[in-house]
Amino acid sequence: MRSPDCGCSAAAAMTKDEVLIDLIVKEVRSALQAPAARRSAARQATRPASASPTIPLGVSNRHIHLTQKTFHRLFGEGAAFEEMRPLYQPGEFASKHTLAIVGPKLRSIPGVRILGPLRNYDQVEVSLTDAFFLGIDPPVANSGTLNEAAPLTLVGPNGSVYLERCAIVASRHIHMPGADAARLGVRDGDLCKVRVPGAKRTVFENVLVRTNDNWRLQMHLDTDDANAANIREETVVEFLGRM
Amino acid sequence: MRSPDCGCSAAAAMTKDEVLIDLIVKEVRSALQAPAARRSAARQATRPASASPTIPLGVSNRHIHLTQKTFHRLFGEGAAFEEMRPLYQPGEFASKHTLAIVGPKLRSIPGVRILGPLRNYDQVEVSLTDAFFLGIDPPVANSGTLNEAAPLTLVGPNGSVYLERCAIVASRHIHMPGADAARLGVRDGDLCKVRVPGAKRTVFENVLVRTNDNWRLQMHLDTDDANAANIREETVVEFLGRM
């Protein structure tokens, strides 16, 4: 056994294995020497999975964002856009309003909820399971990036619209206040990894970090991701760091 | 810097940090000292994803296995069990026959195909997406392990059966001939990891290795796993070694 503060001098020529071990030991040492908060997080990452820093998980079912103009076209000029219940992120809410979405297979998914507040673009976030059912081929994209989005027809009580570029499979992402980002050692725009433990243990990669001090720390996965990882109740994910 | 073969004597009392570092170094050393095949696989896990060995992927949609007795009950005593097309694994086939499955929400999924040959147990393999739709809570289980399986009603053209323990979410698994298992450094019953690259890059863990020289090398994921990883066409997975 060796002490981590062993004072032996480095071997002049290290084998590949030695280089690997040395890198790992450096990583561990660096983590152990970090400030208290980060130190705690980094330590956890080297322990059994359950000890990693955790992030509350929100599973996003299919949903719709609309402009005020499209909302009025579908619900009537005089219709008021009303809140049903608040969401986890401050200021965001599930509205009282739902639509049917119809794709080129002429199959419909009814009851797709519109989330508020109203936005400056129309967007439908679906899972790939939904996309196959509807017969569309939406890109994996960040919210608001609609240049390659797929077409859908949205049907409301007062009319319908055919939106040529509205449907995406939303990228996995984490909403992070700046303080959490600092604690976890990541920045806005970083891609990172998270693990869901359990019988269908899964590591989700290419998870986008989005920082904003108005948000609460929360990971968003779609229903395909959640079902693949066998998530059946409210849970947290293990944060595994940057890619 | 310290050489991994540093000969310093152990500190009599190690701190928690030192114990942690020691454990990690032991793990790394043990991996590096493993037999050649396994060592190679372990090393590859540290390389870029694209250099890992690959395994053809088969995506399993919901399907049914039946006993001869149950088949005759649902299709009639005189019915012949007929092949529609062969599957990738030698001797296995999609039959011409489908059933509707109905759960406690009294919602039905029609057209669920029976795979052949007939077996000595009745089993319905569903995704968790299907399970939520049907209103059942099936375990994640290996094929044939039905002691905790969920109930479903199966409806055929000649009758129906209520099976109290039939529905499972099948564990992720890889069919491996012995030679492939040896090449990849794993044995029957091992749990391993695979990665699907792409926009929704995903590492599937707890993947069961099943070896049989009559099989062809193939990974099986269900539709939730495949859709979570954004698999839209035939592909291969990257083998990342044992867990």
- Percent range of helical residues of chain A: 10-25%
- The computed structural class of chain A is alpha+beta
Question: Could you say which overall geometry of chain A the principal axes of the C-alpha atoms support?
Answer: globular
- Run of helices and strands of chain A: HHEEHEEEEHEEEEHEEEHE
Instruction: Round the Cα radius of gyration of chain A to an integer and report it.
Output: 23 Å
Largest sheet of chain A: 8 strands, mixed
Strand content of chain A: 35-45%
Q: On the 0-100 scale, what is the average pLDDT of chain A?
A: 86
Low-confidence stretches of chain A: 1-15, 30-49
Distance between the termini of chain A: 32 Å
Number of strands of chain A: 14
Number of helices of chain A: 6
Pair with the biggest interface: A-B, 52 and 50 residues
Overall description:
2 copies of one chain form a homodimer. With 243 residues, chain A is an alpha+beta fold. Chain A is 23% helix and 37% strand. Chain A is built from 6 helices and 14 strands. Chain A has helices at 16-33, 36-46, 68-75, 128-134, 178-184, 223-228; strands at 54-60, 63-65, 83-86, 93-102, 108-116, 123-125, 140-141, 150-156, 159-170, 173-176, 191-196, 202-211, 218-222, 236-242. In chain A, the strands form 2 sheets. In chain A, strands 2, 3, 4, 5, 6, 7, 8 and 9 form an 8-stranded mixed beta sheet that branches. A 6-stranded mixed beta barrel of chain A has the order 1-13-10-12-11-14. The model of chain A is unreliable at 1-15 and 30-49 (pLDDT under 50). At the A-B interface, helix 1, helix 4, strand 12 and helix 6 of A face helix 1, helix 4, strand 12 and helix 6 of B. Strand 12 (202-211) of chain A pairs antiparallel with strand 12 (202-211) of chain B, so a sheet runs across the interface.
